[in-house]
Structures are given as C-alpha cells and as structure tokens.
Design brief:
- The chain has two domains: about 80 residues, RNA polymerase, RBP11-like subunit (Gyrase A, domain 2), CATH 3.30.1360; about 110 residues, RNA Polymerase Alpha Subunit, Chain A, domain 2 (Beta Complex).
- The mean pLDDT is about 90.
- The relative contact order is 0.23.
- The longest helix is centred in the C-terminal third of the chain and has 27 residues.
- The strands form three sheets. Strands 1-2-10-9 form a four-stranded antiparallel β-sheet. A four-stranded antiparallel β-sheet has the order 3-8-4-6, covered by helices on one side. A two-stranded antiparallel sheet has the order 5-7.
- About 25% of the residues lie in helices and about 30% in strands.
- By secondary structure, it is α+β, with helices and mostly antiparallel strands.
C-alpha cells in the first residue's frame, strides 16, 4: 500500500492498546520504510512546545543562569497545535514572535526565611492551556535569603532540532506474526496525547512525501 493510500484509508490502522500516555497501533499493508518513517516522525518530528528563551532578571541561587535555563527547557509543556503556529510558519514573520507562536512564562520566587524547592508549578503561564505537564518537576532549591526572577518564552519546535522538543519518550516498531503488518508503539512526553502524535505524524510523513515527489518532478523537468 502506498502511504498516501494509507492516509486516506485509516481503517488499515487498528488500536491494540491505549492509555493517556501510551498507545500501540497495528499498521496493516504499510511497507517497512513507510512504517519506520512514521515511527521516526512520531519520535521527534511532531512539533511541541518547549521553553526556548529565558530572560534572567535576578538569580541569587547557587545554580548558574545557564543551568536554570537548561532545566526550564527540559520541562514538558502541554501543546495545542490547533491554536499556535511554528515560528517559521507564523504570519507575524517576526524574530521576537507573537501570541500566535509563543507563550510567556514568569518565574518569580522572592526571598524566604526557609530553604525551599522551586517547582514547575511556580511557572505562571500567560495562557492557561499551555503549561507544564506536571507541577512537581523540581527546578532549583533556594536557601534562606535567596530568590530568582525570570521571564521565559516557549515556542513550538521539533526534536530534530533539539531533544527538548521530542514529542515522544519512545517510538518503537515491531513485526507481527503476519506478513505486511507491524506494531507502532508511542509513549508521549505528556505534551500531546499519543493519538495526536500518531495522527499528526501521519500528516507529517504524507506532506514530506508530497514535497519530495514535487522536487523529483522539478528535477525531471
């Protein structure tokens, strides 16, 4: 089966198991190269949000600015692909971005007389639907008298550019007992539901195939 035919006939995809974080589907009649292309795209080719820019206003913790920025970037962020654009595809065409392609977070932990841990729940988002997948992810520990304040900006990106934009923790492909069938298993980071990753992955692979065919046709002409 051609992958474009597969896209048009999703009855060739059977759900084997499904949870909020993990999903396994059976691909029927799809060649190995197409199935593996889908696996790779599901792993790091579907765009998700991640903090990409951090403006440090104040940091008196023991952790360097770069260390905090790195930790913030690795926090999985819930993603809504229907409302936001990738920066390169946004109508604003701006290096600074706009509300359609970036979301601001504020982390402001003032001084305290006690030692405390700052968690992802302390990140205040300007958009209620775009936030850390969990509020229990530790960022930094502050001693008495220490404080941090910073503004962070999250944008859509792909894991092919940096692992912080991986949409899946794992994406595996295994053969079944029947010829021409394989099982795709996707475990989400939490930024997207696993079914969203697979369906978006199918669209991504199909788009890449169409673009590739157009390039070949241009070379032939």
């Amino acid at each position: 089966m051609d992958f474009e035919d597969f896209v048009q006939d999703l009855s060739s995809l059977d759900i084997i198991s499904q949870t909020d974080k993990k999903m396994s589907v059976k691909l029927k009649g799809v060649t190995l190269q197409y199935a593996n292309a889908l696996r790779r795209v599901c792993l790091n080719g579907v765009p998700v949000f991640a903090i990409d820019t951090v403006d440090i206003i104040h940091n008196s913790s023991v952790l360097a600015d770069e260390g905090i920025a790195h930790r913030l970037g690795l926090i999985p962020i819930t993603t809504d692909l229907s409302r936001f654009n990738e920066p390169s595809k946004c109508d604003c065409h701006s290096e600074t971005g706009c509300t359609n392609c970036k979301v601001m977070f504020v982390l402001d932990a003032g001084e305290s007389n006690e030692t405390r841990t700052i968690y992802s729940s302390d990140l205040a988002s300007e958009d209620e639907s775009i936030k850390p997948i969990s509020g229990k992810i530790p960022i930094v520990q502050l001693a008495p008298g220490q404080s941090i304040k910073m503004e962070c900006y999250a944008r859509l990106g792909r894991g092919t550019d940096h692992a912080k934009w991986n949409s899946s923790n794992i994406a595996t492909l295994t053969d079944t007992d029947k010829e021409g069938e394989s099982t795709l298993t996707v475990e989400s980071t939490g930024a997207l539901k696993p079914e969203q990753i697979i369906l978006s992955g199918i669209d991504e692979v199909n788009t890449k195939l169409i673009d590739f065919k157009e390039m070949i046709n241009q070379i032939k002409d």
